[in-house]
Amino acid sequence: MTTLSEVYREHAIHLRHIVPLDFHSVRTVPDSHVWPKSDDFSSDDQLSIPIIDLKDPLAVKLAGHACETWGAFQVINHGIPSNLVEEVESEARRLFSLPAQQKMKALREPAGATGYGLARISPFFPKYMWHEGFTVMGSPVDHARALWPNDNARFCDVIERYQKKMKVLAEQLTHLILKSLDVSLEDLSWDVGSPSTALQLNSYPSCPDPNRTMGLAPHTDTSFLTLLHQSSISGLQIFKEGVGWLSVRPIAGALVVNVGDLLHILSNARFPSVLHRAVVNRDGCHRLSVAYFYGIPTDCNVSPLAKLLNSGHTPRYRSVTVKEYVILKAKNFEEALSLIRI
Ligand code: OGA
Ligand code: NI
């Protein structure tokens, strides 16, 4: 079976779109990182994505409704131990606090998928983002050894425990969301238990001019579902049609769940892959987030679920293999969905 990192190997990115700025050393924002001022924020502070308690007997219905109207929700009572989340955050902080030349030892290769570097979407924008990331697929041990030759066991252990817990939760959420469509795991053509996944540690360093920078530019996730821990510092925003950009308020202990492109295709666009971005913290705080991308094995086909089409709906997307879609997205970014539209 082809792994996700093997798929990414087919699409190399130029080094200048991989190496982050040495954020520790800059006092002003270089022109390469200055974005036009945006004034497209919604002024409606009351509007926000739903909060769903996984123990709520109505969770199936609420999750279906949230996916349909928002493409995202926050989940509480999800069973991920809070100390594990704190440990991941603290390991991420330890990583991003390393001197720039040390982090460069784990730099992502031009044709690689894992390691330290800028966001993969960087080549699609004229300016650089105020962001550095670290991507893990499977075991992080090789890059962790490069970062900390004698002291990497804790990092690897925490990351691996977190991935295991996230996988279980993602499966549970998949079950819940599909149930809202009256679809069961058996109706799927792949094994939900052996997904392709990635863990992304994001760092948005403290910025001398946060109003003129961008943390992570608007995008949709290529995943089926994404589970995000965004620490206590705000920054995540989602785009709501007719309203504009809305902040997703950090709630202690909650995880943000969003619909990715693969669920969008599978649900025949009933559950929209939500456009989102991360802004740099306005108060100059260093912000961290941890995203778990839960996907479908790369050799599998995705297409709108037959069960949904029985009810008279025509398919809006042609069938693609996950591998084909991941490459389409890597090369065409936001055009990818429209390229498979029927
Ligand atoms: C991502 C993402 C948002 C955030 O990693 O894909 O959207 O708040 N992150 O860091
Ligand atoms: Ni995202």
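^ nickel (II) ion complex. The two ends are 28 Å apart (CA to CA). The chain has a mean pLDDT of 94.
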